């Protein structure tokens, strides 16, 4: 069954590639991963919109491996595509690949995550949410919930990952900026993984016990892990204010029941769409702004009924 | 029958040829100098590590820590740039690889433990150090222009990396087939006791095998970091699986004693050609996984068939292959 | 020709000789217990939160999922199968299918099908290793890659969510104050221990790992025994993955990443020989307990993640080094 | 004896291991241009002494002089630098390298690490030719037969221009025919002035080739004597410290109906159209040159390899044996040739080894009955006087003879009707050999059918009722012992008529 589908896939791709090349523009999309809660709907939205725009997508998956991504940029250049959409997982590493693309006169834009200043000359635009800004928004939300003081822990994503760096950095910087009285007890990595978050949360709860006034998780999946751990340890006690990011369905559910304080909706669908639309405009010769954000919404109990979950 | 066994013997070449022919027919834009040069550049990272691992596998050992050494060496070469300048820092990075290899070698030889477990441990340790010294943040080099220069394509085909890879693989081929230490590596991997009793210092050979593998992983890491102007603690975390697959597809036996540089070249190129072809067609990553896993299993099973056949021949009594003793009286 | 030495040993001072190796064996067994006690002692002094029922239950719950894999992996190492690197794929298979099939066939049949399919992946490993003589590292690496790829393709690369909260509550619940997952782990560990040490299959496993050709010539079905170890690991990882999926109520294809190394670490720290022919389930679990307690103490003490990895790596080096040194002393 | 003639002079050599004194105060010297045999029971210290001489074990105390100069050897490389070369009993070569590379292993010719392959192959060809071995030096060693590999092993030692060459049971995998060829080579080396140390259990060979003989017992040197004027019986009594009168006891047993019959069996590779039957109470000998297909016949009957043709009958019923478990069910047991490789699981205790083939019978619902397991081991340990009488002892701590008894016990536990013994007394000392023969005698007296493979002709003639001789994969008809002599068997085995 599965095999058959893949065969069809390959055959279809081959046919598309050989017949469609003359008419359609081809855009290389170097995505973060094929299977991921956020990336998958973003990829799908991008593909779907591309079909409407009659753009062919060459989709390459980095599987969260930066090095793989830097090499895939070369594949894009070799393939002689008309444009490149890159989902950067590192602020620097892709620059030579992007430079090569520029040499070959292939325009490139970034989706979802930004890169460093040095990358600016090589990319036409950056569309998507700002992970740093998300960190800042999370800081504001938690600061508000705790009334400006208390002790919190950060459950961070993969160490060294661009999203993690942005979301943690934005959070910490913002707390300093508004000179909040909130103290960060510890930052632990749980790799955007629910099970890992569950395990580290158990230890955090044991370790800090009642000192724990709030939690900031780099995404809703890990927030879920903390909630489960809390319910194990203190079945009767309500959870401390928890702020997550992404705006998943089950996070909305948790906000309704009061298990979670807030999440930040960042729609993967809009993320994907905006990127391909921007690329389409570039291919049509239009000028585009170098920064095109997608809207970010903080969701709390107040507005949970009026906002659509991201996925 | 003879053709079958001949085909089995050169199976890597055949698979590589088939991959190339099928890809050239199905994939538009596959046959071009750009594709070749970029594909080769891609293969170079895997290839450099594979060179070191080929020697180790022939000697009957394995190094799982190569991916971590790759990251660590790159980080050092970037972090030291402000103090030392680019080239000396790069050299320092390669030295880090060498030292890491020496640690692996000293522990495996000194403690007499299985390298699979030991390098599993050092994999964790080196990766931890990489996170430790960078505080889990990627580090950036001083001169992006140098990276761009390093990524240039020369003679329409080679980048610095891929040229180094090809040169090293040829040197390795020469070393493994034409030098005494090279042959001794085979001896140690095939029968360490016999080698030892024949006066070959097998411990020393294993030690230097690890040093060599570490150095090359370090070199690959340094080149990667220079080309990307970045040292990251997450670089190379899934690299080792691909490298082992490339070397084994190239016909090197994981139990030691058998293998060749040209086979590894074939294995690396096969995996590279296949990846590029599938990426050109936008085949999902998980389908790519299935294909490469299948080829790995297929080639290893073929290898077993060849070996069983050979072994059957070896079991034959002396008289079938000609009387071993010409002279000498009978009872 | 160690024959000569051994022969003399028994003729002259054989008793002293064996007593020596018995002492060594006792030391290598007690060493781990002493280490565990040391960690507990240190933890209790250093951190008030450590020595509490709540914390120990945490550790127990956290180690149960990987513990089930450890039981299977022990068989693989003892039979001389080096390691099963396909565990992430089998765990993913268990987790994804036990959730993904729920709407179609209900929670219990889903779980059974998931475990059975994980067992089938194990069987494929076993066939390649036992019957085709493929190196276990390569076979399990290849099968794992293929398996994970197929699992990903099957769900289209997305996350699968649970639809039956009751099953989650059951798995997350407690019986007599002990988490259900831990009880399942304990049951599997006891069965695993019984099979390895008391049943003919276990004796066959030890014999096959100890001397493959002698076992074969003693009418032990060596190929099946070798394959069986991988089937056992496949089943164990399938159960582990299923429980993981039910606890989390969501499953990604990469949910099992890293479990193979955690399991191997525990087994090796427990002093099970990677060359095969020697080891037991309690030993492997003692290794697991030690690693888990140590990690727990480090987290409670706020030791940073990279440092934890460093400590764990060093620990493995020490464990295998000590094992090798003791064995040399023991003259075996 | 002047120093100039003395190739090797070991004085007061003592070697202790933790808890064990393997050699105590051994004096041993060998002259250039002579063959010096070392004999002794298993565990007498021969191997340890040779490992000291080879540099593998540095002695705890004592002095070693080579060619008159005192030396210290800490590694095999040190011994080799002094011109000491060792030929191991077990083939210890590198299967994945070529024959030539094996001959020059550890000292390949070259400059600046660059290998001079052509020179090496030419030299290897010359050496192999000198030894009369028709082996292609470019062939991969692993592709050679065992006896060819043994010759490569000897060529390797010889090519090193040794001053002293040590041979440990060099004939164990050679046929009598090849042994004779080896002896002529050894005599030539001796005449070239090389000192030869020759270790063997086969006293007949020692009498044939040696100039002097040293007897070791319990780690001490008992006596060194010129070969003239010593008899095998005297050597045996020096080795065991007692007189052994009847080496090959043959207890007569009533011979009954055929238990195992094979008709025209072939495996498509090693043997073709082999037919014989083994009757209850009978010992059928199966002999021939190494490589004639004897072991392969046994392994195929036992299901370790597959037959391509012919029928096997057990008690008259046609039986298909596809695996050792089938064989056990059918009542066939097989004691393999390579005890360490195929016979014992070294890390297990005697009890666990003995019960291995019948574990399922000892189990209920998968659980091994502890009591039955212990009782079984206890029974055989006492019946066969396995020493030390402790079923819980790890089997690799036992001497070779006792290990072999345990291996036989393992098979008797399966209550077979046919017992196949492949070289049951190889590498076993004289005392244990007699015990094993006694056990076999008891078994046939109880009505068991025994098929015994042996290369040792006196043993074959002393123990067996009838003998099948194999040559080139074909078997002779079973011949009555009374009609046979060693010469007649050799003639059949080699295909050469005796003058």
From TrEMBL, chain A:
- GO MF annotation: an example: carbohydrate binding
Q: What is its main location?
A: other
Report the leader peptide range: 1-24
Question: Any idea where this protein resides?
Answer: Cell envelope
Give every Periplasmic binding protein domain span: 29-287
Provide a GO CC annotation, any one. Answer: cell envelope
The family assignment reads: Belongs to the bacterial solute-binding protein 2 family.
**Listed name of the protein:** Substrate-binding domain-containing protein
Which organism is this entry from? Nitratireductor arenosus
UniProtKB/TrEMBL annotation, chain B:
Any single Gene Ontology cellular-component annotation: plasma membrane
- Its chief place of residence is membrane
Subcellular location as annotated: Cell membrane
Q: Which InterPro entries match?
A: ABC_transp_permease (IPR001851)
Q: Which UniProt keywords apply?
A: Cell membrane, Membrane, Transmembrane, Transmembrane helix
* Bilayer topology annotation: Multi-pass membrane protein
Q: What GO MF annotations does this protein's record show?
A: transmembrane transporter activity
Taxonomically, the superkingdom here is: Bacteria
Please give the start and end residues of each transmembrane region.
Answer: 12-31, 43-59, 64-80, 86-109, 116-133, 153-176, 205-227, 233-252, 259-277, 283-302
Report the leader peptide range.
Answer: none
**Protein's name in the database:** ABC transporter permease
Automatic annotation (TrEMBL), chain D:
Protein origin, superkingdom: Bacteria
Q: Which SMART domains match?
A: AAA (SM00382)
User: Keywords in UniProt for this one?
Assistant: ATP-binding, Cell membrane, Membrane, Nucleotide-binding, Repeat, Sugar transport, Translocase, Transport
Q: Name one GO cellular component term.
A: plasma membrane
Major localization class: membrane
Membrane-related topology note? Peripheral membrane protein
Write one Gene Ontology MF term. ATP hydrolysis activity
Q: Where is the ABC transporter domain?
A: 8-243, 242-497
Homology family = Belongs to the ABC transporter superfamily.
Put simply, this protein is called ATP-binding cassette domain-containing protein
